[in-house]
Amino acid sequence: MRSISITRPDDWHIHLRDRDYLVKTVKDVSRYFGRAIVMPNLTPPVTSIEEAKKYLERINRLLDSDSNFRPLMTLYLTEQMSDEVIREVKRSDFIHAIKLYPAGATTNSESGVRSIENVYPLLEVMEEEDVVLAIHGEVTDQNIDVFDREKVFIDNHLIKIRRTFPNLRVVFEHISTNDAATFVAESGNKIAATITAHHLLFNRNHLLAENLRAAYYCLPILKRDTHQQGLVKAATSGDSHFFLGTDSAPHPRFAKESACGCAAGAYTSHAAIELYAEVFDQAGQLKNLEAFASHNGPDFYELPRNSDQIILTKKSWEIPSHYAFGNDSLVPIRAGELVHWTVTG
Ligand code: NCD
Ligand code: ZN
After folding, report:
1. pLDDT digits over 223-245, tens only?
2. Helices 120-129, 83-91: crossing angle, 10 deg rounding
3. What's the gap in Å between 109 CA and the centre of ligand 1?
4. Which of 87, 102, 111, 268 ranks highest by number of CB atoms within 10 Å?
5. Which ligand is nearest to the CA of 267?
6. Phi then psi for 74, rounded to 5 degrees?
7. Cα distances (Å, whole numbers) of residue 41 to 46, 57, 326
């Protein structure tokens, strides 16, 4: 059986949720990831250093006593954030980014930014303090087709942000189009992107052809196969602009399979590196998995790379049809099917 050894990977974009849900999410993310950037879109969102500290403590309480996993916290950017909070983020040793959600773009983004220009003074402080800005890059204009929202965000906002704040470190999160991959690849070393396993493995046919499948509904929405192929090329190329961020975003079944609408978010944390390994294997680029999963992220965030290794073996296992999740259940990506790689050490 084929095995590879890579530096311990990190997940640079995850939703761990809160309360009862943390039992499952913390268990999964801490199996072999060294660190994870924890998104702040709780209800209410995490907007202060104190709240982030308390959230960190709630997560840490669920870690096994011998766990070396380290959550990297984030704050949720609002138009009301003060300059001083940004300076405090810089001084803190546990908050590593500030997340910009355009208001209404996705799950729990109601308190997000209504007009990007309104936060330009805050971006200026972030640039000055060298604090990482993580962006959900989709416009929210109801007149813009949902499949075009990422491209329009680049044209209307990102190009201008890049020009206005050339030294601001920006992570364009969970990119889903060739347009985004090209934009990032052609930007200097201050702009990078996370890519999810589900945007690499699937396209909109998986979501929409045959039955409408709730587990695949996420934002940014899955695009056509040519975008999927472009993302695979970018992720597996070894280009340091791209790194692993699962955007694993669990919703209990009642919120996914509901008559009043399906919550956006795909769960991949149960098999994250295993699914990425499949993508790199299929592309004939396993040699670049380590750069994507374990090197490019810490290098961009200016954190040390993990110093130990994990072993991945090409051996299949079956993903359960669902997991317990609070007092409901959670249907993961690939439910009831095989994944072809296993973490064996
Ligand atoms: C995320 C969530 O559920 O919190 N949903 C998603 O579809 N990705 C939010 C986000 O990252 O957009
Ligand atoms: Zn997310």
Report:
1. 999 999 999 999 999 999 999 99
2. 30
3. 9
4. 268
5. 1
6. -135, 160
7. 7, 17, 18
